[in-house]
Structures are given as structure tokens and as C-alpha cells.
Predict the 3D structure of the following.
Amino acid sequence: MKILSRHTLTGSRPLSALSLLFLLGGVMELGGVMPEFIRNLRQPMTALIFSGFCLHHIACSWRRGWRICFLANSLSTFLMATTILALLLAAGCSGKLPSGFAPAAILLHSVLLLSLLELGRLNQLLTRKGVPPAVFVVLGFLSLILLGAFLLMLPAATRGVELGFVDALFTSVSATCVTGLTVVETGSVFTSFGLGVLFLLFQIGGLGILTVTSFFALLLSRDLGTRERLAISENFGTSGFRGLRGLILRLVSFTFVIEALGALLLHLTAGPQLGADSARLGSAVFHAVSAFCNAGFSLYPDSLTGFIPQPAALFTVAGLIMIGGLGFLLCFELLGRTRLIGVRRLRGKRRRLSLQGRLVLIASLVLWIVGTLMFLYAEWNGALAEHTGGEKLLMAFFQSVTSRTAGFEIFPQTELSPAGTFGTTLLMFIGAAPGSTGGGIKVVTIVLTILLLHSFFRGRTRVDLAGRTIPETVIREALAVISAALFLVFGAIMALLLVEGTPLAATIFEAVSAFATVGLSTGLSAELGDFGKLMLALLMFCGRVGLLTVALGVSGGLSERKYRLPEEGVMIG
């Protein structure tokens, strides 16, 4: 099977290049920048690419065996076989079938699907070439960001407004890194094509580059290679390679099911805020996916302020944000615990959550409750003054939830009191759980730092929690993350103050929001120059990809010295 995979990857490189050109041509046509002479070549090129897929498949089958190759590429085989049958049917009944079943349309849709599947091999190709997982993640996000910026600059993406490169890049980074900071009004400026681009960017960004590429790789072959498994294992922090294939499939299925349920609930509970019947479902899907991915993009200028009279809709959005912020692994643990509760009672056994699961769940609950109480106390006569008691409680709870990960607004952030602004900034900096769709330094990092301080001031050399000792390597990673985050954010704040001359409080709020990929804004992002927007884009990228991943991606991976230098102490404090 290993020989087959290598042969398939090597032989399909020309097809991968043709697939990429085909998809690029389709995007240019949708964007309204396709030259006429290239548009005239679309049909013969489509037929040529489809013939290339068929010939490559036959050659592979002839050399490696028909049964083995068909099983390994079952989806591609099915697409090519059904396309040939449909072409024969359309050729024999061309006068009786709708225009959508014309041979040209059949070829176009088939080659589109085959091209998407072919590009899914790039994950296997790069990992088999020895590219470290961190480098692959960094390059994957950068490629997606540049592609998104190119698509958003197309004339078909905006209404009467041409985005410059910096604005398009900023918006693409914000969507890919599931932040939500914008320099233009999303709903009024972008067309359906532009909104579709943003939708795909924050959907892929929320799931993660490794998850998406691995999912497509699973559609192409029967299993993942060792390097693919290693990359996924490092990305999700799992031990061992068993069950990774099922994990990817469950993760994608879980995401689509939760987003679909959220969209349905929003469609039923949001009232007239979602618009007319024709756009209602699309708006519900857009906001549900944006909430679950913690992207914070909204189609309305005032974000979700209009949802305040519909508490069920706000609770739906808050629930999607919370599920996405808890992380996929913890959600799977909770689902498994709920499913087996009857079995545990019968057998008299008690299945406990993992240490990380308990830590994330307890810390998240504490932050949600403390944040709600803090906003109620600080904003009772401030930003919440004009609302009833029930609305104040709902808005304080939603502000506590959205401040950590999502970035949806139910009132302008400029109305917050100094205490509310500081509390929001602190919650944004802490962020969501590891392995989730949210950003920040993560709740595990801040909890481990607090536990380290507690152990140090009690004269202990180890960090113990719930009958377990936390490894020193994990403690060092937590300290490295929080230290690097502080240096990066403070450095960006100083650069913005020196170059842009922005107010201090607004600059701190915007920089932390960008780094934590939250998206709450005081309106400063749209007023910044090119330097300020690029600085915030860098913060968003580092916050979403992860400081350790970026560092390893730039350095090319871990490198340990094979020797130790003499020790010498220095004075501290």
C-alpha cells in the first residue's frame, strides 16, 4: 500500500497542477476577471482534464492492479464512472434533458469535484516529503490568507468599492484567523460572492488547516500515513496514533451537525432580524457558522444588537460560541460520558473526565460566571442602564461569553466603563480552550501559571493537580506562551502608538482583541493606516496559529543540543 501511495502521488503531480489552474480559472470567472479568449477554451480544457484523470486512473490500475487501485481511489472511480454514464445519457437524450444535464455542464461539475479531491493529496505529498507539521500549518494558513485576499480584491466580491491589497489582506487574515475585525461593513460592502469567500475562510480557519486537508486525504485513500498521523497527533495533543482517522471524521461530522442545528434554531428564534424569507436561511447559516467558529463576522452594522428582544436567539449564538470555545476533544468526552451514563450505573463504574477536560470545563465555567457578575456590577448604570433587569442579565452573560472568543457585539464597546473595558481586555487575553476554534493564551496556560505561582510560594518544586504531577516541559511551554504573548502584544502596542499616534486605551483594547482573535473593536481598526492594519494582521495570525507553532515553523522545527554548558546562577528579585 505504501508503494501504491507513492506512485499515485508522483504520477498525479501534473494533474494537481492542472486542477489548481482549473480552480483558479473558475474563481477568475466568478470574480469577473476572466479574459474572453480563455473563457472560450473552457470546454475543451475541461474535457482534456477529465480525460487526463481517466487515463491516469487506468494507467495506475493497469500497473498496480484494478481491484487495489479502485479501492484506494473509490470516490474518484465513482465520480468518473457516473460522469461517463451521464455523458452517454445526455448525448442520447440531449433534446429531452434540462440544460443543466448538458454534456458541458456534466463535465464541468465532475472536473470541479475531481480537482478538489486531487488537491487533497497535497497534504500527503508535503508530509511525505518530510515537511514538519509546524511548517505545514504556517504555510497552509499563509496560502489560504493570500488566496482569500486575492479573491476579495476581485470586482465581483464587493459592491461599488474596490478593496486595496492591505484592506483585502486584513479582511482575509481576520476571516481565516476567525477574528472578526473589519475595516469595511461586511453586509453592505461584500456581494454574495464576497460573503461566500469569507464564509469558506472562517469555516476552514475554524476547523484548522490540518483537519481540512486530512479530511480530504481520507476521501482519497483508505488511511493516513505515519507523518500525517504524527502531524494530527501533535495538533490535537493526543497520545498515540490509534483512532486518529475516526477522530478527523467525527470532528468534521460534529462541526457540520452543530452548525446545522444552530442555523435551524436561529432561523426559528431570531425573528425579523434575519431578514426576508429569501435571505433568512442564508443569514442563519452564516451567523451559526461564524458563532461556532468563533469568527464574530455579522451581516449587520450593529452586529447582534437587534437580537436583544429575542433571548432564545442570543442564547443560541452564545451556546455555539461556548461549544466552539471548549474544544472538540472535550465535547467528545462530554458526549461519550452522557451516552454511557446508563451503562455506568448498571456496572457500578464511574468514568471520569481527563485532567485537561476537567481543568478546561471548570476554568471556563468560572470565567463565564465571574465575567457575568463583573459586567453586571460594572455596567448596571452604564452600558446596560437602558435595559430591563432580565435584559441586563442576558447582556452581561453574552458579553462574558463573547469577550473570550467570538467578538459579536450587543452594544458598542465604547460605552463600557473603565472597569468593563479592563475586564473585557483580560477575558480576551485569556481566551478559549486548547484545540478549540478560539484564540488567546488559552485557559490551561493561565491556570498552570497560577498553579506554578501557588507551588512556588509554598516552597514546592513540582506542580501537582488532582493527584497528578504536571510535567516540567508543559510548565515551560505555558510560561513561554504567556511571556511571548506579553512581549508581542506590548511590542505591537508600542509600535502603533509611535507610528499611528493612536489613543492608549483604544490601542491596548484593539491589539489584545487582534491577538486573542476575538474581534471586539472600538472602531480603531478602520481608522488605522497600512502599517497599523498590517500590525494587527500579524497579531491575528500569531494568535490563531499559535506562538509556539509560528516559532517552530520559522525555525524549521525543534533542535536539541547534544551537550550541556557549565551552569552559573544569576540574581533574581
Remarks:
- Residues 472-499 form the longest helix (28 residues).
